[in-house]
Amino acid sequence: MRRAEFADETLAAVVAAAGLDTPDTREAWEWRLQCALPWPVFDGYRQRRDECYAAAKDAGDIARVAAAEDQFFAFAGAHPDLCRLVVSGRLGYYDALLPTAAARLRRGPHARILDLGSFAGVGSLYLGAAFPDSRVGGVERHPGAVAVAEEARGRCGLGNVSFACADYTAFDAGPFDAVVSLQALPAYLLPWLPSEQPAGHRRTRSWATPPPRCSRSSAGSRRSAG
Ligand SMILES: C[S@@+](CC[C@H](N)C(=O)[O-])C[C@H]1O[C@@H](n2cnc3c(N)ncnc32)[C@H](O)[C@@H]1O
């Protein structure tokens, strides 16, 4: 997805200011994931992601989904490059969802907005840019993801956004006028919920085999094409 292809200008501006990677196609993103990360990181990512989908598909066991999710985001948060790539892979989702979230917030009081489960911060930063007169707080339990979010916040220069590293079930820093949570409640992956398909966004779950120029070995570390 190139910058010009974002439907939403605020998101395009935030992504550019944060210096987030915007591969132009889904395939380019998958290629980058497979080739730019050290093998143990890519492999760990893939295993944890597959467990999330297996847990959601199998039985709709919320506890298993939540545990798998937590493992996934703990791992992603611990690897900043992976964290940023995961975010880049979600740009289409953000583009489809965040303008709708902002439109809903606009209908009510929104001077103090809390974003539950903010991960690398894109949702909070977007809301901070969309509502420059509001204060936006993102709360996320994985410190690595919070660090990536803080770095992006600094690059965007959004002084009305802050991040806290905490479990949101025990977070008591209010009051807030509005609370948003973008795919951060434990059940969001369950197949009967619509959160994976905001209007205008189609998620690709297929997993590409490594393209021919991307060679890997289990002993490999950072590896470039060719
Ligand atoms: C699917 S991600 C969504 C992240 C972000 N809202 C977005 O749309 O990109 C869910 C995030 O919520 C965080 N999370 C889940 N439960 C949490 C809790 N109880 N306290 C804090 N963070 C939590 C996870 O660590 C993860 O980063």
Task: Describe the model.
Helices cover 47% and strands 8% of the residues. Strands 3-2-1-4 form a four-stranded parallel beta sheet, covered by helices on one side. It has a single domain, classed as Rossmann fold. Strand 1, helix 7 and strand 2 form a beta-alpha-beta unit. The protein contains eight helices and four strands. Helix 1 packs across helix 7. It has 226 residues and is α/β, with parallel strands linked by helices. The two termini are 23 Å apart. S-adenosylmethionine (SAM) binds next to helix 7 and strand 2.
Strand adjacency order, main sheet = 3-2-1-4
Largest sheet features: 4 strands, parallel
Tell me the count of domains. 1
Cα end-to-end separation:
23 Å
CATH architecture: 3-Layer(aba) Sandwich
- Tell me the number of strands: 4
CATH class: Alpha Beta
Ranges where pLDDT stays below 50 over 5 or more residues in a row are 203-214, 217-226
Short synopsis of the structure:
With about 230 residues, the protein is an alpha/beta fold.
Any descriptors?
single chain, 226 residues, alpha/beta, Rossmann fold, four-stranded parallel beta sheet, globular, disordered C terminus, binds S-adenosylmethionine
Give the SSE map:
Layout: H1 9-18, H2 26-36, H3 39-58, H4 62-78, H5 80-89, H6 91-106, E1 112-116, H7 122-130, E2 135-140, H8 143-156, E3 161-165, E4 178-180
Parallel strand pairs: 1-2, 1-4, 2-3
Helix pairs in contact: 1-7, 2-5, 3-4, 4-5, 4-8
Bound molecules: S-adenosylmethionine.
